[in-house]
Fold this protein.
Amino acid sequence: MTAEEYLEQQAECNGLCDVTDVVVEEKDFMRCVTCPFCKATVDAVLTDTTIACPSCKVEVTRT
């Protein structure tokens, strides 16, 4: 990812990409990531064994 792409993605997140104490404590989401399946910028849903995209509903096993 280039610096330009990062800044564009950060702007799309409306501040959700900013790492704060609240975000660091949250372990159920991976904030502001691009889904490799639908290409949407989302807050991925994490469990101990899976990661899921709330946009396209694809769920995969975490390695």
